[in-house]
Design a protein that fits this description.
With 543 residues, the chain is mostly helical. Helix content is 71%, strand content 0%. It contains 30 helices and no strands. Helix 17 packs parallel to helix 19. One of its GO terms (cellular component) is mitochondrion.
Length: 543
């Protein structure tokens, strides 16, 4: 409070200097005081949060900044540190967030909550890996902290589909009396669904009932889905009826969507549509997630009217419609084959977007390509460039595939060349069929040099495959060119030879021997020749 009074007093002095300076010396004195006030304000702004958020990997660590701050006499609260850690995690600065939580735990004057412990374990997994996380969990001093930290550990096992470790952890938690949350059991059911062990899900439900663990909405939804997979519609309906009798849970759109999906898989289209109409009544105008999920189900049922009705209804939700939302509706309409409506909604997005998101235009670009409308593909591509769209790997993939389909290989190669930087950095791997199509084009055209350069690039990018090598070997055989370099690359790429490739190598070996009787290669045709042993003195490739 005293600091604030002092600050306001100085600001009043500044106001006086600005309005009625009595003389030059007095004005200079007042402005000098104003400068010191600015320094104080700057110091206030330059707090611990901004210092940490400005930190970069090479500048030091979070712990040293925090310690220096405290050593200078400043105070800091646990809640402030939690806010900073959340911001660090949001910006994917996991290492700094982990350092902060570790320092906070070591500082005796600060209280670390069980939730902090869970967050720290999650960060250890991201930064140091699962082994260190398991060690951290084992070293936790009490059951309260273990109870909080077990969920992120189990979640990791589920994500990796590690059934053995997940079951071992659940057994340990049960022995310690810590398996008391439905979230843990839900994770196990997710694991069994992901690994197609559908019959194990009812066993988890049985265990929950035995130990008086309450089932939540997600528990019922997973149980219903497992029954649908293992026992059919009738079993899923029984779960749904049991949920209706459970006064501790409310049936919402997620449960009805799960039931509708069960009907759809069983071919009961009318039942699915009736259930979806009921689900619509449960939707909230606080979020578009439910609207978009039901839209995808209507699209799967080939129900255009439901898709468009819900899309219009979703506009009642507050906030901007995101690019991801537009991508969802466009994909659904593409699935329905309604290109006219796709174009209309795409234009609607273009008129409202603040920044051109190439992912949205790629949906329409792909639809044109799959329908063989390459004129529209080319026109849309140029249009997106004019609008400031930045092509990504999917853009070049669509263009390349489209031009390959219509055998316009020059344009397909142009698209491939434009995507070269993305391939080099591992952000794009063209499909094997498209890669081979370019190689076979060079082969048919007899373009030896282009074919070799192409193979060299694929080899350097780690995406060369057997059909490409075969194509180039055939081309070299026809052109009577040395294949030693190609075969060496095959060795480095660990390409497994098939019968055709082995025969090609034997043919090249034969021709090599015929042209150079002094060759050191073994001439016994029954002896397999390793690729790297093939040498010849045919005319070299022109540089």
């Amino acid at each position: 409070m005293a600091t604030h009074r002092s600050l306001f007093k100085r600001l009043n002095l500044v106001r006086s200097a600005l309005i009625i300076p009595s003389d030059k010396a007095n004005s200079l004195r007042l402005f000098s005081q104003f400068a010191s006030t600015v320094d104080i304000v700057h110091e206030t702004v330059d707090d611990i949060t901004s210092r940490i958020l400005r930190l970069r990997s090479s500048d030091g660590n979070t712990a040293s900044i925090l310690q220096n701050w405290v050593d200078q006499g400043h105070k800091i609260k646990s809640c402030e540190l939690r806010d900073i850690s959340k911001r660090l995690i949001k910006s994917k600065r996991y290492n700094h967030a982990l350092e902060l939580l570790a320092w906070m735990d070591a500082e005796k004057s600060l209280w670390t909550s069980p939730a902090d412990c869970a967050t720290r374990l999650e960060l250890i997994i991201k930064v140091h890996g699962i082994t260190k996380a398991e060690e951290f969990f084992s070293d936790l001093p009490n059951s309260i902290l273990q109870k909080a930290a077990c969920l992120p550990l189990l979640h990791f096992y589920v994500k990796k589909k590690d059934t053995e470790k997940a079951e071992a952890l659940m057994l340990k938690l049960s022995d310690l009396g810590l398996a008391v949350s439905p979230h843990l059991f839900n994770e196990m059911m997710k694991l069994y669904m992901a690994t197609s062990q559908f019959n194990k899900v009812p066993l988890v439900i049985l265990e929950m009932k035995k130990t008086n663990i309450p089932l939540n909405v997600l528990s019922y939804n997973i149980w219903m889905s497992s029954c649908s997979e293992s026992s059919g519609v009738a079993a899923a309906e029984m779960v749904y009826k049991e949920m209706l009798r459970d006064t501790n849970v409310l049936v919402g759109w997620t449960t009805l969507a799960t039931l509708a999906n069960t009907y759809m898989k069983a071919g009961l289209v009318q039942n699915a549509l009736i259930t979806l109409r009921t689900a619509e009544k449960k939707l909230s105008t606080c979020s578009r997630v439910g609207f978009l999920f039901l839209i995808t189900l209507y699209a799967s049922l080939n129900n255009r009217e439901g898709v468009l009705r819900l899309w219009e209804a979703s506009k009642a939700v507050r906030g901007r419609i995101t690019s991801a939302n537009y991508m969802c509706i466009l994909w659904c309409l593409v699935k329905l084959g309604d290109l006219e409506e796709v174009e209309r909604i795409f234009m609607e997005w273009e008129s409202e977007c603040l920044k051109y998101d190439i992912r949205v235009s790629n949906v329409l670009l792909g639809a044109y390509m799959r329908n063989g409308l390459m004129d529209k593909v080319e026109s849309l591509h140029l249009h997106t460039l004019e609008k400031g769209g930045c092509p990504n790997y999917k853009t070049w993939e669509i263009l390349m595939e489209g031009w390959v389909k219509v055998q316009n290989m020059d344009k397909a190669i142009d698209a491939l060349k434009n995507g070269f930087p993305l391939i080099k950095h591992g952000k794009w791997k063209p499909s094997d069929s498209n890669i081979v199509a370019v190689a076979e084009y060079f082969e048919k055209q007899g373009k030896v040099e282009d074919a070799y350069k192409y193979l060299k690039f694929l080899h350097q990018s780690g995406i060369a495959n057997l059909p490409v090598y075969k194509s180039l070997l055939r081309l070299y055989r026809c052109a009577q060119r040395p294949a030693f370099d190609i075969l060496e690359k095959m060795e480095r790429d660990k390409i497994e030879l098939d019968d055709e490739t082995s025969a090609l190598i034997q043919t090249l070996r034969s021709e090599c021997t015929d042209h150079d009787q002094s060759s050191t290669l073994p001439c016994d045709q029954s002896t397999p020749v390793p690729p790297y042993a093939l040498k010849s003195k045919f005319k070299p490739i022109n540089p």
